[in-house]
Input
Amino acid sequence: MAKYLLLKHYRGAPAAVNDVPMERWTPEEISAHIQYMRDFADRLERSGEFVDGQALAPEGLWVRYDGEGRPPVTDGPFAETKDLIAGWMVIDVDSQERALELAGELSAAPGAGGKPIHEWLEVRPFLAAPPTITD
Amino acid sequence: MDEALLRSLTPGVLGILVRRGADFAAAEDAVQDALVEAVRVWPEDPPRDAKGWLVTVAWRRFLDATRADTARRRREDLVEEEPAAGPASAVDDTLRLYFLCAHPSLTPSSAVALTLRAVGGLTTRQIARAYLVPEATMAQRISRAKRTVSGVRFDRPGDVATVLRVLYLVFNEGYSGDVDLAAEAIRLTRQLAARVDHPEVAGLLALMLLHHARRAARTASDGSLVPLAEQDRSRWDTASIAEGVAILQAALARDRLGEFQAQAAVAALHADAPSAEDTDWVQIVEWYDELVRLTDNPVVRLNRAVAVGEADGPRAGLTALAALDDSLPRHTAAAAYLHERDGDLATAARLYAEAAHKAPDLAERDHLTRQAARLNARLGR
Output
């Protein structure tokens, strides 16, 4: 088993095929989208592949150390062009193929017009100690 | 083994050890040992006096641990100085714990964790699950809190307001895992109300009961938020509402108004209304005026502006809102709502989308996005 991080982007990812902002969907389309994501997570929980998932607020700040005794400098909100993570899900799967399969499925969540959004998801494997090879 | 019984006895036992002069952290360890022992022994050999048994075992554990300690002499002196353990009312001992756990030297999150552990008798694992943090993290938080209050001696009553704030924090955390924190907060506030004769304690209890009574109606089956006006009022818990109103009325009759009583009065007016249209908004605005006078809290002013919008029309609400800092939480959402009621759907749709962007949690964000979507659909875009 290996863990993968699936990243959803507010901004910074290539444009989705069905790229309509959510507030331009109908309330029913929004419900269908949310239900799809919820069902997806539930199913992965039952298959033992779900680890964790959280949505993030769009507002963020940059902070850095700025010398002894000086306050950290914060710079925000982000400029409109910045890459921005909307949320993430961690899955624990048997193979990279399975991770890609699941990411593809998540990207097919329905959006405007009830059609899949086809949004790009970023899939990042976790760094971990290599598994012991027994065969 | 009756877990509920053990949980209800724990704070009293802990309180007695603390009163006898045991350091809080050591007393807590000793009580935990006694509980483990109870779980082992009681099924075979149930005690006649459960609490007395726990006190005896815990006190013996505490003495053993104290004697084994390097600072033995000093602590033994402390124990010697204490008067012999006589029968004392359990009431004062548990009360002492409330004040200890809400001690001003603790951060709010530590105070909350310690209260749930010491007064509520919850396990570290239950508290960790409720707050969605790893058990090891919560264990550290609790032991740090115990160290902070160890050595604090309790010879005078603490600040009731601080205790109430801690209980309200617990209530507002909602729930997850196997512990419903809102129900737990109500249970603890009931205990406190039975021990402290203070109208604000009653006010907080009434407020919690009135909010809790509406919980089932607040979310739809798919988890989405249902605003007050659209809630199915037949799903409100009428027994809880009746109890909350009765407690509130008794508190108000004492004429020592405080913030919690005033908030409970607003909640009672909502709970009393047979339908959203029949809500007595004029009286609600009057209670918000009281709250502004008592707290001068900008969030209260924001809620007041929304109530003014209902009582005197959306224009009046927008005027009240305009006087407030627009960076306040939910300011944009309130403006969107009032603009919609005023008939300016385009502005309302734009503001709902903006409010969704700033929403503090997922349910609220989804709700506001839906509001924007609903108006955009009506505007044909």
User: Anything to note?
Assistant: Chain A has a mean pLDDT of 86. Chain A touches chain B at residues 21-27, 29-31, 34-35, 38, 55, 57-59 (CB under 8 Å). DSSP finds two helices and six strands in chain A.
